[in-house]
Amino acid sequence: MRHEVTGLILAVLVLATSAYTQQQPPAPAPPGRGAPAQQPLVPLAASTIAAHAERYTGTMVSVTAAVGEKYGDTSFSLTGRGRGGADELLVVAPLLTAPVRPGAYVTVLGEVVKFDPAAVAAKMKDAAPPADVAAKYTGRPAILASSVINEAMTDLAKKLPPPMTPQELELNKAMKTIGPGFTALRQAVNTSNTSDAGTQAAEVAKGFTAAAAFWKAQPHPDAIQWTEDARKLAEEIAATAGRGDLDAVKTAVPKLQQVCGSCHTQYRVRLDDGSYRYKDAVAK
């Protein structure tokens, strides 16, 4: 029971961390097209899954247990009541950035499946376990892992992005000015506060001026133009807000959001930890 509760706590921490480490909020979903509901995680023991395979097949689970055997680079077993027993549970991860250690406790998040070597090979390609291991576990319950969290709270199933270059750090700094500034700008418009709207729009314009230096060194003329258009719109909003023209501000803010969305769609990518990066920097 203790390990099941620990697994749930770790799962919640992982999900919460993903939510709060986002560097910029995602663009709102189009009307009537909300994101699909995420299937909740069920905290279970490895032995419980092994004993009730049919009941839990297709269920997203969180399992905390000791590593039994290590099979190749991305597969291993979780021990139930005893190493090598029938209640040992196979785990197949898409990748592991560091090896798991037999006997060490890990928390695995993923989907319970009835192990089929061909189906797993098709779904996870290079992550399938060796042939002798596949034969051993065929027809038995297994977990296709989305996360493998070790005792240091590191998710080994998530690819680590390359470190940011000095230029990308400057872009990130600019985005951290633009993102909160634009949120505050919209709030000011919603409360009809033209004075605050002007202040926030001016800060956003400064952010785009800083971002322009990054894009001018990249081979993307459309991003250069979008950044310039966004800067001009932000300056326009600051000027019209200074004149107290709330209607003009309300008209310009959606245009600014649309320009930002165009650039984000083309050149921003969301990483496994929930943060955002310049797409070219992590596509190599």
Question: Which key terms come to mind for this protein?
Answer:
5-stranded mixed beta barrel, about 50% helix, disordered N terminus, 2 domains, 10 helices, about 280 residues, alpha+beta, Four Helix Bundle (Hemerythrin (Met), subunit A), two-stranded antiparallel sheet, OB fold (Dihydrolipoamide Acetyltransferase, E2P)
Give me the secondary-structure topology.
Blueprint: H1 2-20, E1 42-43, H2 46-51, H3 53-56, E2 60-71, E3 75-78, E4 89-92, E5 105-114, H4 117-124, H5 131-137, E6 141-149, H6 166-190, H7 194-215, H8 221-242, H9 246-267, E7 268-270, E8 276-278, H10 279-282
Parallel strand pairs: 1-2, 4-6
Antiparallel strand pairs: 2-3, 2-5, 3-4, 5-6, 7-8
Question: CATH superfamily of the largest domain, please?
Answer: Nucleic acid-binding proteins
What global shape is seen?
elongated
Sheet with the most strands, sense and barrel status: 5 strands, mixed, barrel
What is the CATH topology assignment of the largest domain? OB fold (Dihydrolipoamide Acetyltransferase, E2P)
Kindly give the count of domains: 2
Strand residue percentage: 15-25%
> Which secondary-structure class do the elements indicate?
alpha+beta
Uncertain runs: 1-36
User: Can you tell me the CATH class of the largest domain?
Assistant: Mainly Beta
Output mean pLDDT. 85
Q: How far is the N terminus from the C terminus? A: 44 Å
Q: What is the β-strand count?
A: 8
Number of helices: 10
